[in-house]
Write a structure and sequence with these properties.
The protein has eight helices and four strands. The chain is of the alpha/beta class. The protein folds into two domains: 88 residues, no CATH class; 57 residues.
Length: 206
């Protein structure tokens, strides 16, 4: 009763403000952040990576270690050396000349480098060029930070396509529900349950 007999004066705050903040380009913010983190475009152009994003993480926390597998047949070297070609050759020579009994059992070597221009100059050491008893093929026995970045980029693309596929399926189901009602969805659900039960029965009989 009180609300009907009393006039309520409404106050609109901000109605006279003319200058509003422009809506930022949210897609551009995401893509630029993605590019700054992975530097995918620089990798495609063959340009050296800047010390930022994931590359900065690698350069700041990268260890220099030598690892030998438990069965002593695999030797892994992680290095920040800028002259990767010299590092690979020196390591193979050191393995050849080493008196360590563990090293004598090594049959495979894997290098892990920060990506730099010297990577492309590393030759294969096979056949007549093999140093000692451990062969080295660049495509098989060398991993760089660029390889990891490219795999991360491909994984993100796969996740994006997966999300788009999920959105398409949900949109299709929503359209069917809107036009045909819930009956087709119940039918599809029933067929899935029936198929699952038939498989369970077949497994029990076998």
């Amino acid at each position: 009763m009180f609300a009907k007999t009393r006039t309520i004066n409404r106050q609109y705050v901000g109605k006279n403000i003319q200058n509003f903040m422009e809506v930022p380009d949210l897609i551009s913010i995401q893509t630029s952040s993605y590019e700054s983190f992975l530097q995918a475009e620089r990798m495609k152009r063959g340009e050296p990576l800047e010390n930022q994003g994931l590359q900065e993480v690698f350069t700041s926390t990268f260890p220099i270690v030598d690892l030998i597998s438990e069965d002593q047949t695999l030797y892994v070297q992680v290095s920040t050396a800028q002259d990767a070609k010299k590092k690979v050759k020196d390591t193979l020579v050191n393995l050849k000349e080493s008196d360590d009994k563990r090293i004598s059992n090594v049959r495979k070597i894997v290098f892990f480098f920060l990506h730099n221009q010297s990577i492309d100059r590393i030759p294969d050491y096979m056949g007549d060029n093999m140093i000692g008893q451990v062969p080295f093929v660049r495509k098989e026995h060398l991993i760089t930070t660029q390889d990891i970045l490219e795999k991360a980029q491909n994984l993100l693309k796969w996740v994006a396509w997966l999300c788009l596929g999920g959105i398409f399926i949900l949109s299709l189901l929503a359209t069917l529900y809107y036009h045909l009602g819930i009956l087709p969805l119940l039918l599809a659900f029933g067929l899935c349950i029936r198929s699952k039960n038939e498989k369970s029965l077949a497994n029990l009989r076998s």
